[in-house]
Amino acid sequence: MRLQLGDFLNDICEGERIFIEYESTSHPELFLDGLVKWSNEEGIPLLIVDMLDTFHLFVQQLRFLGYGTHHLENLCVIKGGGKVELGEVIGRVRIMEEFYVQLKEYNDAVRLFFEKVKSDKAVIVFLGTEKFMYSFQESSYRVEEYFDKVVRRPLFKGNMIFVFALKGLMSAQVKALWYESSTRVLEINGRGDRFFIKKAPKLDHLGGVIEL
């Protein structure tokens, strides 16, 4: 099955988590660009959770490819570490060992976001989470603790969550847990214009291709 990006996104229900894995030579920023344009067209607010300046890298790559980025530069952003501020930073999450502190700071920032956009649903995009997890992914206990306390915990109703992650920075355990915790899994091809569906709630979508 071949799907256009808009058709794929329109099929996603509130409460789903979509995990997108990519390689260092591919172009996941093309999917992000299409996702932001779709959310604007649908009137759904979009929030970026930017770990360690990954959002900046995505935007820089789009500029290098000749894409306009104005629609990305005004997005609401929660910063987790890093030094480059891009978009409207509405909150910060400290990168630290105590996950409950990080979760509280994230919850506080997301509440501010929903108050600002005056909407009961949103698209939330996580960029660079694998960089944060890299520091403790050799500890099976810490990885399980992170998924139990942060990832699997229901945070806010009405969200569609997209998690972008670089393959080379994930351990086998981390990758397996993301697969398990997501309703859909996509894998990008080298050029970045096609995404292969590895997991989906609909059987006829499995093995399908999303074309940008």
Automatic annotation (TrEMBL):
Check the record and name the InterPro entries matching this protein. Answer: DUF257 (IPR005489)
Would you tell me the protein name for this molecule? DUF257 domain-containing protein
Q: Which organism is it from?
A: Thermococcus argininiproducens
Q: What is the lineage of its organism?
A: Archaea, Methanobacteriati, Methanobacteriota, Thermococci, Thermococcales
